[in-house]
Amino acid sequence: MFCSEKKSLEVERIVKANDREYNEKFQYADNRIHTSKYSILTFLPINLFEQFQKVANAYFLFLLLLQLIPEISSLTWFTTLVPLVLVITMTAMKDATDDYFRHKSDNQVNNRLSEVLIDSKLRNEKWMNVKVGDIIKLENNQFVAADLLLLSSSEPHGLCYIETAELDGETNLKVRHALSVTSELGADFSRLAKFDGIVVCEAPNNKLDKFTGVLSWKDSKHSLNNENIILRGCILRNTSWCFGMVIFAGPDTKLMQNSGKTKFKRTSIDRLMNTLVLWIFGFLVCLGIILAIGNSIWENQVGDQFRTFLFWNERGKNSLFSGFLTFWSYIIILNTVVPISLYVSMEVIRLGHSYFINWDRKMYYAGKSTPAEARTTTLNEELGQIEYVFSDKTGTLTQNIMTFQKCSINGKIYGEVHDDMGQKTDITKKNEPVDFSVNPQADRTFQFFDHRLMESVKLGDSKVYEFLRLLALCHTVMSEENSAGQLIYQVQSPDEGALVTAARNFGFIFKSRTPETITIEELGTLVTYQLLAFLDFNNIRKRMSVIVRNPEGQIKLYSKGADTILFEKLHPSNEDLLTLTTDHLSEFAGEGLRTLAIAYRDLDDKYFKEWHKMLEDANALMDERDERIAGLYEEIERDLMLLGATAVEDKLQEGVIETITSLSLANIKIWVLTGDKQETAINIGYACNMLTDDMNDVFIIAGNTAVEVREELRKAKENLFGQNRSSSNGDVVFEKQQLELDSVVEETITGDYALIINGHSLAHALESDVKNDLLELACMCKTVVCCRVTPLQKAQVVELVKNYRNAVTLAIGDGANDVSMIKSAHIGVGISGQEGLQAVLASDYSFAQFRYLQRLLLVHGRWSYFRMCKFLCYFFYKNFAFTLVHFWFGFFCGFSAQDVSDQNSMDYPQLYEPGQLNQLFNKRKFFICMAHGIYTSLALFFIPYGAFYNAAGEDGQHIADYQSFAVTMATSLVIVVSVQIALDTSYWTVINHVFIWGSVATYFSILFTMHSNGIFGMFPNQFPFVGNARHSLTQKCIWLVILLTTVASVVPVVVLRFLKMDLCPTLSDRIRQRQKAQKKARPLRSRRPQTRRSSSRRSGYAFAHQEGYGELITSGKNMRAKNPPLTSGLEKTLYNSTSWLEHFCKKTTDTVSSFSQDKTVKLYTYL
């Protein structure tokens, strides 16, 4: 590790291969990582500093120091020291435990083994000992230890396949390739050991999709880009081995550059408590000054005579000095307004809430035997105040599984299930899937429930054949066989994997490819097609095509892509079929499926040769090459014949739609931050009902420069609230004025809007002079989707909202690429998903499914906030009432010193709003509690004082002695605050009764014990008032005074609450009344329906697809020599003497259709 000053000076990196001595002079970081906060030496000072950032802890430390001064202390010092040390110790132990697990995780990573080439031999080295410039060997399915320059691999042309799930959340494979000059090194240790190339490249940074550098070797220079680099955190897939040179190590790797620091999190109530403690201390200072002045006056005028009356020997005491000492004495005496027991009680309540979360069976996922876990005990009430949720997509909202659900072929829908009456029904477990067992090459995990498609295949429907043939030919999938001889597909896009697998199960099996041919098995017969041209996908074309020659010599163009694009290319004769297919697409899209149009064209041999010659000429051009090629693609992709459409489901996790709908009703804004492509993110937005066709507008920000981004944001703002509101020239105004968003304008926005922004545009939008426009626009929109974002950008977006909106934020994700976001938000939630446990380890709360977020916030979060606020209001009221009695007494002693049920919380998300608005405990509530406490303290003191003034007991003796007065007042206090907490209790249990009334019983037992003969015999100096409690509490007048005091203290509160509930009931009051009525009636509970949005055609194909794969395939660079085509030439060969279709024809299958009851569900909305 090295200092930040050195890091800031690094403008470029120079690395020499196999030369540690040369590289050490630059003091580059080694490969050790640190995610922990403390070390053995730094734990105590850093942790104590963090804990004493709490004003309360500093306040109690100050009181402890005062109590050590005998002249002013009326309380022993250990009464503050013991609980303070206990609280600090418990917090320190919890922090130490959390950091221990971080150290343990770091050690597990740092001690992984990697093969490093040292002295022409491979040696096992721990990751933490790997140095910049080392050459290391990776094997299939291994994690990449550092950021490497790929030198060579087992694949042709130095290619390798990697999975980048920990970086961007995508599980589809990506290709990296070595330079041709280094790929020749192969696995020859001697040649690799002699490799002495020097790399000059960019300094360490967090840009995952960019790398620039130059390799100098053998008197020549070779440019490097991101395609030559394998980043730490990736996994090598489908590649036997590869060698790479370490460029960045440890904290300099792009993965670690994108990892946020572990931050000390505090709740808004904790921050408010810091302010209130300061205010209370100021209040105590004022009280102390009043009493000190009173003491000085009393000492000056009465003190001498009073001391003479008491036979005190003290003479000539300075009245000013006496007032000074009295001031500090009262600071100690009156500190019970905020005793340390408040913080102990808060921690106990939080601990209890954490156990409630851990024990909640409704948040237990049986599929993985995973319960919900509160990994911190200090943030529970913050769960009830969430305003913004930032969610990852892949693995969080979705299962990251693509499944072929439906298709439309020649105007007929396949994939639906019908009953005996021909009516469409829902698919249930009772429905029997299509039996693919007769196809030995079928994917056993694939399920399809509409038997009619297989019947059409059996009957030889030519349109169905052509449809499935297109799916088997038009793609970028690579195939290989595993050790068991099973066919395995390497897919660059999960959409393509789903389509090719569907064709495979229905008898059109993609087998292999070469740069010039594609071989498929059609119903048991191998057929090889000559690949004449590959028209690749890009984000503008939104389609891909292949031109092939079949064994009969016919040339065909097969195309698939976005329906809105492809339909424009159809021949006019398709009008009727187009209308029908369009309706089908609308139906598919309404179900949240990702749609794709399928079409073909027969080409004339002469026309194709002329076109292909023009394509070769265009490829040879230096200028306007891409434009000419695009024009030729447009020319040949016309007059297409429509075959139909596909519908693929990007499976959402269970309950995602319902959860998002419910959270939206609770006024919680959900932003999706994903590393996926824009179109993929939009598709999921529609599938989750975050985006709908009913929205007024969807703003897409895709500018490549800061100027373009600013202009796009300006135009979007004009559409929202008019040109006058938008900054016409983009000038920067005063930051405070710009950052304080106009809530009035925000409320006047009518309609629903959505904002979609790309990662490269977001990088410009997060600049200081643009981010305020971005934030203002985003906060006006109902839905925000940020796509192609890096892990660091996720954290920056969270910080932007967190800091400038002053809103409570929650981030939820399941992968390592979500760790920065989880650490930055007020609350971090980790999902134990497909991408490891990195997100869980960095989180505050964890569970297995996104749907549990609804219960975590609307039930546990709301209850935690509600209970904590009730507790604080009651605690401050009780302590003000108790403490200020001492203040009033000072003038007469010479100045010496449940709520609604969990289901209703889910059914009525609007109940969550008080937490977001911080209504239940704030400064106003504090002053109300303070005023309530002051009123109660006045009643507690002056009613007994007035009653005892010149009064006599039943035995004729005077009862206005000091101790009888104290017993009466203390008993009144205990009864009053017990009645008050009973009034504050919404739901009674045995535990409530035991603690509330048990505390009253405990008080009386302690009171009689303190005034007993036994305790006097043991401690005669401390407990001299023998029998006083028994004598006082046997007087009827005493109990009448206690009753009067209780009634005077409680009745005004009861009256005010009754009037408030009757005249201005809250939503919670109304639902509580309805809940009581429902308990009597016990109506059947309705269930919420699955929300379906209106029609919207969306294409799913290749939205997770990268441009350039067509060129890679036709170049042959990704073809393995050991896998030659199964057949050569344009010939049709018989694969088996009898095709599996003939076997299928002999086999009869009965289609079982079952009725499923229509489930009508009502979403509770409060009227």
From TrEMBL:
It comes from the Eukaryota. The gene is ATP8B4. Belongs to the cation transport ATPase (P-type) (TC 3.A.3) family. Type IV subfamily. GO terms for cellular component: plasma membrane; trans-Golgi network. ATP binds at D392, K393, T394, E496, F537, K560, R594, T674, G675, D676, R788, K794, N817, D818. Residues 1073-1096 have a biased composition (Basic residues). One of its GO terms (molecular function) is ATP hydrolysis activity. Mg(2+) binds at D392, T394, D814, D818. This is Phospholipid-transporting ATPase. Residues 15-81 form the P-type ATPase N-terminal domain. The lineage of its organism: Eukaryota, Metazoa, Chordata, Craniata, Vertebrata. NCBIfam families: ATPase-Plipid, ATPase_P-type. Residues 898-1066 form the P-type ATPase C-terminal domain.
